[in-house]
Amino acid sequence: MADSSWIPYLLCLIPLLPLAAAGVTALARPSRRRQASILTIATLSVAFVLALVLFVQVVGAGGGEAEAVFRRSFNFTWFEFGASSLRLGLLLDPLNAGMLVMVSFVGLLICIYSVGYMKEDANFARFFGFLALFSFAMLGLLVANSLLLLFICWELVGLASYLLIGFWYQKPAAVAASRKAFITTRIGDLGLFLGMIWLYSESGTMLFYDGGAGLLEASSLTHLTTTFTIGGMALSTATALLIFCGAAGKSGQFPLHVWLPDAMEGPTPVSALIHAATMVAAGVFLVARAFPLFAASADPDVVSTALQVVTWVGAITAVFAACIAVAQTDIKRILAFSTISQLGYMMLALGLGGISAGIFHLIAHAFFKALLFLGAGSVIHGCHDVQDIRRMGGLRRFMPLTFATYAVGMMALSGFPFLFSGFWSKEEILHLAHVWPVSSLPFYLALFGAFLTAFYMTRQMAYVFFGSYRGSHSPHESPGVMTVPLMLLATGAVLLSLIATPAWSWFHHFIEGGQTHFEMAAIFEGWGLMLLSIVLVGSGVGIGWWLYGRQVLTVDGPDALEQKVPRLYQALAQRLYVDEFYEATVIRLQRMLACLAEILERRVWAGAVMLVAAAFRAVSRLSRNIDRSFFNGGFDQGCSSLRGSGGRVARWQNGDIQTYLGWIGSGVVLLLIFFAWL
Amino acid sequence: MISLPIFLILSAILFSLGLFAVLSRHSMILLLIGVELMLASANLNFIAFWRFGPHPEAMTGALFVLFSIAVAAAEAAVGLSLILLIYRHLRSTNPKDVNSLHG
Amino acid sequence: MNSLSEIIAFLLISSLTLGAAIAAVGLRNIVHCGLSLAVFFVGVAGLYLLLGAEFIGFIQLLVYVGAVAVLIMFVILLTRPEDEAAKLPGLRWRQLPGVLIAAGVFLVIYLAIMRSPSLLRDVPEPAALSIQAVGEALVSGHLLALMAIGVLLTAALIGAALFAMEGEDGK
Amino acid sequence: MLPTETQPQTQRIRPALNFAARRPWCTLALLIAAALVVGTGVLFLLNLKAPGLLTAALMDALSDPGQAPVLLKQGLLNYLENGWSFAPWMLELTSIFMVIGTLLAVFGVIFALTSLVERKVLARIQNRFGPNRVGPWGLFQPLADAVKMLIKEDIVPTGADKVLHLLAPIIMLVPALLVLAILPYGPGMAPIELGVGILFFFALGATTEVGVFMAGWGSNNKYSLIGAMRSIAQMISYEIPLFLAALSVVMLSGSLSPDAIVSAQSGYAFSFVPHWFVFTPWGFAGFVLFFTAALAESNRSPFDLPEGESELVAGHMTEYSGFKYAVFFMAEYIGLLGICGFAVALFLGGWHAPLPWLEWIPGYLWFFIKLYSLVLLAIWVRGTVPRMRGDHLMGFAWKFMIPMGFAIILAAAVWHYAGGGVLGWVASAVIVLMPYLALGRVVSIQYPASRRVYRFSES
Lengths: 678, 103, 171, 459
Prior knowledge:
heterotetramer, C: mainly alpha, 6 helices, D: mainly alpha, two-stranded antiparallel sheet
């Protein structure tokens, strides 16, 4: 094996460069706008290049040895307490090599896009500082070989997300959304934290890979699967579920998805970067990273409980969010629910055991969802900050570039056959779901989700780009600095499809090991399934066009779907009342507890305290009287006599330094005489 | 004829003169002058012991004087600025007037 | 060191030093005291030269005559009360204890010197103080002391400047 | 008192008596000088022995002009020892007095010349003629000045501290003269080869401040006192950059002795660029710093505001006249010559010739040529640069010159460790230039240059 000692330096550099940019931007004056943007973009470009270098290294190394997956971990001791020590580490394997390239590339494009999008903002430099901070945390999360380091970066990512959602802190909605996002994800993180601590107390390490001693390696997994805890659950299952809590919170899985739509209050590049492409994918990444733990089971033939949970949650989320997306009118919210739905797909894929499918969907989704969000941003920018799709329309004439790229994104997302990356990734997931031994319900749910996806995307396209313009200001195309990233992302969304077709499933083998062969015939292996999904997508688009494309849309009139099934539409528009449900249950319960605590405090404890206080007051009055009459008299006498003698002695201290020195001098003389001659 | 005791006696006289100034003169500047006298006499002792001592090549005495001169310079600077500060507050440099801490 | 010229030099310099010292502590005009102190420092420097410590002697001149004496003179001028002449009260009976204590200290030291016959050893003439050796000793064995002196001088510089600075409340 | 016809005898004697009564110092000096001249002549005439030795001494000196003064002195001593059978201690004393006499004569002449040259050059700079009445081109003007100074009344103000008033000029002059004792005039021609010569020089410079203080305080005059205080503050402040600049040379040559420093500058690079310290980046900066601080140290323009006549009459010399004033004057010029001599020894290669084929000219001549060039430079500066303002003066010392001094020391250290080559050149030049630019920026921001506005008719 070639010398790989340079790898850890690169791994360090990739996250640290954006951190340096963030630090400099934080310390520099806010008026240094150019400097902040150039610094962030430059460091991200360097990080991207370094990530590419690492990626090439991983690809080259993987090709040489047939079966083994290239994996290098670089561990070091953080600090020691007593005999034990806490170790952190960096890791490079195909999973994070691909992710590093994706994150740095998308991040770079979005930074460039932001230069145009945020041009007018007063806090331009702060925005770029936050973006750089986020990039640092996200890249750090990817290279971590320790659950602890990953957790630290995980929380930093959450912090950056919080800061960026609330970036326009003058808007109360943004502030509320940022708080909601922070608290909701914290609920999930509590699970992650507990799981991490539990794992550490059981296995004594937090490293993923440590030359056989790591968490995800055989010895540790054996220990975890054979230890049982409450209710006969294997320890591995319990910790995996706890970790999944965190992943679900961050990736907006049902029921912790509520924060993600609200997070769209942040600037659109943030929505694209954090809440579509990278951060929300961190949950998926975490599950993929810890996949051996999830999959560990005492009996290799049985699908582990943890994976079943992941599958079900993913499937439900996918369909659930897709349903809601059907009835939204805010362009970014539709995309947000679509994101949740797609994240559900990724979780579903992971739960079904297809890491490569999930990760490929993640990367593909990152490209086309970032594309869609940036396109949406371009639309919003062009329509003068209007986000309601009912107030748009006919934009394909005004912004042709945006329309073309948006259409590519839409087709990738809905899974148009053959050319688009979304098609192949979804196809693989559907295939996996079809052969899942436990239940066939997830398969049907996924199919339904695919249909809905095509439907709501068609609806959105119809509203935004077709028909006639319904807004008040005249729209315009966005500047080049915004459209060029769009085109680059669109190219990526198309080209990515090449590496994961069944004919040449390079990506699959890249992630999971094995040799790749080109086999054209393999494309048509699962042709029945493929046909089914093509039909479903086609019908989704068809119905969507039938409902929205044919007729003239109006701003105030009821939605086409609302005319057909008003009650269902209302329920969907209100996001199936999940927020209201939380309001009515969790939050009300908490309010009641607060009231109860207040009553207890006021009536019961305060009364007791008052009683005790009164008793003490009485005793002290008695004590004071005794003190005055008995002790003080005698004591005063003693004091005055002492004061008199003290005054006489104090006269010696006359404040004249020369007198003191005289005494010292005579003392020295006497001492010398005494010691020398007596 | 010129030997160690002569220098020692000379420095003892200088020391006593300095001590007298410190004990009896009514000006803080003269106090400081007395202190300088005493320091100089101590330095003279060091040099004399270095010169007449058994190991002049060790240079301990001379180096000590070097350091002592530096310390004395610092002492003089701080002491004089203190005198200046006291004068600004009390309009006097008589140490007998600086007795607000008397018993 | 017993040649005639050296004895004459010693007598001259030591009498100059003693006279200047007596003048420095005894004169009534405080400016004259300060100037006598400068002369005293010159005398001490001369004694150092006589003892073969050229380096120390010139350092003494540089630091004491050039800096300390002048500093004392500055302070004398800055603290001179405007209305009265810069004269101090002469010798009084109240100063007798000071004289007695100083004399006592001298007597004690004198007796101690006289009773130590070991001081009267004859020593060979050592080579003059070599600056090279002093420099090497300063940066090798006494490096810590040198650093400490540097810190001390910096602190004294800052402290003195702060003290002497006109505060917002003062004046 | 009007002269009358009836007192012809006393009339003739009275001016001399008056002169003696009013100017005891001058009379004494004149009498001593006359006694010396007459006594030496008489002794010489009475006892001319062994003239062959005297001739040999002269021939010796003429045969080697580079070492002429040394050889002459040795020959004369030899003559005295063998011809006059002097005892060793007498020889020692004679040797000392010969050196002192030579130095006083040479520097006396240079001083007289400089006082004239300064006036002439300044006059030419200001488009005037300068003194041109006494002798050819006014060449005897110094003599006339001396006579005028000597016969002026010696005024001691009422309420002055008479002792201090008298001692001050002497204390000013003595260190200035003592400096001349350690200058390396030529190879092996330093009167005293002191190992710690640099330190000696600075110690003497420090002593001068006491003299200034005595003059200022002893005069019982507010202008004198303020001028003295300003002068002392200025001298203390500028002593530090002076010392720092000299320190760089001391570091590089590894010695405190002026002789050794001059020897360290011998030789030529490419056989035409002398190895003088001024031809290195740090040395050049150090020389400029040293010379600037030297101007301030000797209270010369543009740093002459302690005696700025527009506000302080003549500073600490306000209350001086006659002979005492002349002594001050002399102390100032001798001090300038001494400090310039040090600059020559430290940076300009001392007595080394600037080009190899000029080495036949005796070293002491080179030394004095360089010394006098620096004096002329100082005069040029005086005629060109206006006087600085007080706060600018101190700010310049503490905010510019002292930091530059530290930079120069750093540059010298870098030069030393880089071994002098191209790397050393570039590195030390950068280290000198960077602080120069930075500090220059700071100083020019803090004290912006602006047109001076004269208000003649206000108030």
